[in-house]
Amino acid sequence: MRDGVAPTVTVVRACLRDGAGGSPTAVLPETGLSDRERRAVPALLGTSHAVFVSLAPAGPVSADVSLRFFTTTGELPACGHGTVAALAYLAAPRETTGGHGDALGPADHSPVTLRTPGRVFTGRVGRVGREFRAAFDPGPVTVREPAPDETVPVLRALGLDADPLAVDAHVATLGRPRLLVPVSARSVLAGLAPDLDRLRVACDRLGLLGCYVYHGPTADGRVPGDSRRGRVAARMFAPSIGVPEDIANANSTACLAAHLARAGTTDLTVDMGDALGVPASISTTVRDGDSGPLVEVGGAAVVDRVVHP
């Protein structure tokens, strides 16, 4: 690291399911590292992503926060579970994180202004026991039907070219486009073993971030008596950004929520990570806006460990 001094890193498990699992995410204060050094952090900590956090000049009680997200391949314009992790990190006690803890004051779900290189948006976080419950506005989502040449190479790489539901894939854009792919059975989802090299080539050629494959919601996945609510299982493959499979992907879940809201599902819970042995869950709500669906996405998080230099 710069000048031979490594920063203190807090590892937060974001998007827990019933208090377990969650995606380990490295969170650390902005310290002026080079982009090459930032890319090294996930590999050094054994996480898929790293989030760099800086507070506005107003001081340590400021609720104005800037975020940058990195994988081993480079910077991302956004990261949903990374945002959940950053909000938990900022609300956790300072003695727990060794960094910007307590920056938000009492964790009472009051709004927090979040800034990334591409946009300014709002998040909130509250504490329930040892967990932090965070949610945020991921931004506008657009969904469209793809052309055949946008799906065929991707479905072949996924091994889904014969699945009867996969042909109903859609391209959803939230910052970057990704392919939402439904499958006909939970067992199909669990058994996926994509050709990751072939998938990376196809996604790179089409400009896709990756592929979000899901099963549901079905009649079994809905809350009895309330057709607005659904529960889905999903897997996210993104080899183009150095993440063969994501434990939790909140922004792609927000894309799916916007897509399913057109059929009346306004409250959605998505389970991920089972194929990796690390359960995770992400929750969304959708309401109508003047220019399209307004999505809020979030999950529970805990501080897992602090790595000191």
UniProtKB/TrEMBL annotation:
<comment type="similarity">
    <text>Belongs to the PhzF family.</text>
</comment>
<keyword id="KW-0413">Isomerase</keyword>
<dbReference type="Pfam" id="PF02567">
    <property type="entry name" value="PhzC-PhzF"/>
</dbReference>
<dbReference type="InterPro" id="IPR003719">
    <property type="entry name" value="Phenazine_PhzF-like"/>
</dbReference>
<protein>
    <submittedName>
        <fullName>PhzF family phenazine biosynthesis protein</fullName>
    </submittedName>
</protein>
